[in-house]
């Protein structure tokens, strides 16, 4: 007997009242047996898709080819799928075709791992053809049937297996792990987007250290990040990666910080190419590029003028990302935190006294300069940047009177203005 939410039981009873079988399957059953609350529910049924739509008029189809229908019952979302047998996987992702069957045993036999290949019913108990419950007790991720065949069908299953191990704090079955090592190169057949999403889940899992170590030991990490990262990698890079794998769980569970830590293990130019290959969204790619190109610059800053100039250059959001990434890096590698703490004291002081950082913070505008005699154009921007440099060093002069006076001083000293790239027009 298994205890299920009343909403799930209602869905099962509705399907069964029409003369069909229905079971809770997949990750939702696995999590239930582990006393975890499933995020969503999966139901396998002998009912064809059109019958499910008759029984649940408000449901909608989300996978017609596979007979998948999404049902909303109270606060529960359940995806129902007809029992099926998968055909060949010529694209290394999805079966070319499926054969619907009335046999739950055949449906379970096509699944990836034993812990996901059980069927549960509140009255009938657990149908467990592949010793999935035993593997839950042993805390093992083991492929259904021949693991090499399973990974040839869909190579992404190798990363899914590691993700389950990282999320659940399980180990990999020996034969399953050996098959991963033998089939690692097949991951190149999988789309970058699918690889990226699985890897990000691994490194943000509760036991991400275990997951990252498995990616390295199985030979999958070069396939994940790209050979350009690993080709000619020096001892210091591999040492940094090994230490990261050992200590990544110390870092905040945040995708942008953890993936940033991964790329920071490698030489900049190769890591930049690897980031481009991974096809991140534009904002994430920008953050990662800034980490590789500017995090070291941040580490050398030790006074308020330099810090304001750096924030002005990078923008506040990017600065905060780099500063927080630096904190996570310190946790992983046990760096001395003195410099970080010192910068944070300076930053908090700058914010407290609202010291000007950006051109928008100046007490004068381009219009003020034009009214004083400057012609419109790029020289206005150059002059504003000169004035910003002045107030970075001395915030007390950030008032219209002092700044306009300073602009006139630059006019009277053409060499100074010329050195700053500004020409004054009377």
UniProtKB/TrEMBL annotation:
Residues 22-142 form the Poly A polymerase head domain. Keywords: Magnesium, Metal-binding, Nucleotide-binding, Nucleotidyltransferase, RNA-binding, Transferase, tRNA processing. Residues 263-404 form the CCA-adding enzyme C-terminal domain. It comes from the Bacteria. The keyword Transferase applies. Residues 169-225 form the tRNA nucleotidyltransferase/poly(A) polymerase RNA and SrmB- binding domain. GO terms for molecular function: CCA tRNA nucleotidyltransferase activity; metal ion binding; nucleotide binding; tRNA binding. Its cofactor is Mg(2+). PANTHER family: CCA TRNA NUCLEOTIDYLTRANSFERASE 1, MITOCHONDRIAL. Belongs to the tRNA nucleotidyltransferase/poly(A) polymerase family. This is CCA tRNA nucleotidyltransferase.
